[in-house]
Amino acid sequence: MPPNDSDPFLKAIKDQFRQTIQEEDVEEDITQDDIADATSEVINSLGEDMYHQVRDNDEGLRRLHETKAEFESGIEQRWGVPLELLERFIVWSQETGEAINSEHRLQAAEKQDFAFDALTRLHARAVQVSMEIHNLLKGGFADGAFARWRSLHEISITASFIKQAGTDTAKRFLHYRYLWEYYFAQTYQDHAEELGDDEVEDEIIESLKEGKDELVDRFGSDFDDNGYGTGWAAEAYDGSGGPSIRDLQDAVDLGHYQPYYRLASESVHGGSKGTLDRLGLLNIPDMEQPDLLLAGPSNAGLSRPGQLTALSLAQITFAFINYQSSTVHVAEMKGMQRLVDDITESFAEVSVELEQDERDSLEEWADQDIIDIALNYIGAPALFTDEVVRGHTDFDSRAELEQALSVLLEEMTDVDELPEEVDETVTNNSEYDSLENLIDVAFEEWVRREVDLSEFDID
Fold first, then answer.
1. What is the Cα 294 distance to its own chain's centre?
2. Domain end residue (candidates: 364, 382, 397)
3. Is the pLDDT of residue 12 over 70?
């Protein structure tokens, strides 16, 4: 088969051969090495061209930014109320945490109250993560928000356990990072060369090991969990080694969140469930739906991560308030609980509305006849290739057909709205008596061209 000059890669190779022959006046046969050298040079050249096109062309980014702004406006219209309520709660929690820290920081430092220090830091981190989730929700990234809620839930578990266990466990928590850093340094050292980074100096490794050994001497052998992450909780848990995050979750009566935690973990990991089932794809089991791939934002799936974020942030904030309780802050918890209830109800209401709208849309989609589906989901330009036009009409190309119809194929979505002369043109230039019949034939050709029918018993 001769090379296809429409393929830019093959065309570039041919051009490179011509240039080589002209420059070097090659008389002998072209060898495999010549081909390999020319191919390599073309690949490098094309790669460089593509690089500069992406770096220097602003058109793609401009279109993306316009689409993003339009999409986020749609998110605001549908989800604006619950998102605003969630944002209000995040700000309220932040201001409460700042007030408690300001009121009790000095006294806690004098008393070496490690629990206060740990809870303050955990609460500040929780507020930041909640803000990250809120931004992901505003952008239409439900799966990303759900993945970040997983972190927020773990912070909630940690804060609740420290509040329950007391200041000695908090001290272990605050010092545990030094043990973790030793095991991280070991892992980093094992792969530094492959990463192309400098290895950690032996003196630093030794210093980290000495620090780790001192912590183990101080807090006991169970504190050393090889950097797993929960050795700080071993003594308070049962003294038999570092508990799992699920153990801690059960210990603070948050085990009922385990189903959501498992689902959120799939949004973090690269497994089958998280790849095939996306929150951003609204699933209505009792209705047929198009098979879609989600490679960007969506207005679906925001309810669950939004609700869970409010609940988890409330748990962390309440743990902080209860540790340094005052009448004013206890009253705040009552108000916060009402706001959290409003948030969960508002997200639920919008979710129900969205599902109903999707049902209506799917029913409309299912009620369409084959012509509507062909025009709206495939498009007339894809149906009427030059080959199809030549095979079923008197025209030689799609362009000639379009000119005779006086209708832009890319704008054709409903044959019922087209002028009568369109059918007349089809009748006079084909064996079909309407454009609808011609589309039906073009659609059949498209199916045979694009769909593997080998597994079906079709003549």
1. 9
2. 364
3. no
